[in-house]
Amino acid sequence: MTTLRALAIAASLLLITTAAFGQSYFPVKTLGTQELWYSYCKKADGTCCVPYCLVDVDTGAYSLYNPGGNGHTVSGHSPGSGPASKMSISGNGSWTNTFSYINTGWTGQFWYYVRYGQRNTDNSFDARLAVGHPEYVRTCGVDTGGCSRADFGAGYTDIFWVEEKPEYIHVGATSRHENSNSYNHWMRSGPAYGIWGAAQDYLAAHPEQGKLALNDMSLPYGGLFDISGNWAASHWEHSNGKSVDVRANCAACGGLGQYSLPDNPTIHNEFLDYCRDRGATHPNTRLEFAGQSNQHIHCQWP
Ligand SMILES: [Zn+2]
């Protein structure tokens, strides 16, 4: 079924819109999908449509790194190029961020497709860099100067907040992501139950452990998890709600830390097997950075 989204501008009334307020991820659109939109000029009484009015239509993003930018702190990341879902009149072939001087014809409506998450200049799709930004489609009246925006976000719509449980605490907050553990613990349901079950299994066998400490999962809508601050594809396995890092510190690299697994290869392998027993994949479920300060267990689901 095709969903229609309408954008209207007033032909006889100047609408003032700003980029600073009212920006929203919502509704969240599924990456790579497209929908049919239309833009039109309102009549003076607010109804559709003024025939043959001229409009400009463009797409853009409000901000890459503000707190609304999927938990990426403004100061924590070097600039990248903006994400922008693209438009096409035919729905395939040529995709663009701008239509200029479009005559709406006798129906007063200009129809086009918007493809969510498109952003590269060659129109190739990169989910890592396209997710979780407040975006908009804007229609401006060429003659009236009035503009109207409709907001949306692109991302994975099936990633959910994972709460702390009696079996584990959340760790891993950094200045790059708002110094908060509220942004880095989002997952799909299956993997979230997977790590919960693995934690229960491990604690049943090792009650002396007490709790575990879970580090990064994914950001709220998935996408780039820019732990390096260079807005390049890092931490990529944490982009789609299927992975979690479990604290398993290197004891000789600065101590174990609260609720770390013991620094013991036998224990590491045992925990990895509990993840696999709960559906995690071989061999992507593994000990990472062994013997280094950022040593941890990475459990990943298919
Ligand atoms: Zn990991």
Summarize the structure.
The chain is α+β, with helices and mostly antiparallel strands and 302 residues long. It has helices spanning 127-130, 189-205, 265-277, and strands spanning 4-10, 28-30, 34-42, 54-61, 86-88, 98-103, 109-115, 135-141, 147-155, 160-161, 168-170, 186-187, 212-214, 243-247, 286-288, 296-300. It folds into two domains: 4-155, Immunoglobulin-like; 160-300, Muramoyl-pentapeptide Carboxypeptidase, domain 2, CATH 3.30.1380.
Tags for this entry?
binds zinc ion, 2 domains, five-stranded mixed β-sheet, 27% strand, Muramoyl-pentapeptide Carboxypeptidase, domain 2, 3 helices, 11% helix, alpha+beta, four-stranded mixed β-sheet, elongated, 302 residues, Immunoglobulin-like
Average of pLDDT = 84
Tally of individual domains: 2
**Morphology call:** elongated
- Helical stretch count? 3
What value does the Rg take, in angstroms?
A: 23 Å
Give the class-level CATH name of the largest domain: Mainly Beta
Q: How many distinct beta strands?
A: 16
The low-confidence runs, each spanning 5 or more residues with pLDDT under 50, are 10-22
CATH architecture field of the largest domain: Sandwich
Strand content: 25-35%
Termini gap? 29 Å
Structural class: alpha+beta
Cofactors, ions, other ligands: zinc ion
Question: SSE order, as H and E?
Answer: EEEEEEEHEEEEEHEEHEE
Strand order of the largest sheet: 2-9-8-4-6
Query: Into which percent range does the helicity of residues fall?
Result: 10-25%
CATH superfamily of the largest domain: Macroglobulin (MG2) domain
Largest sheet: 5 strands, mixed
CATH topology name of the largest domain, in short, is Immunoglobulin-like
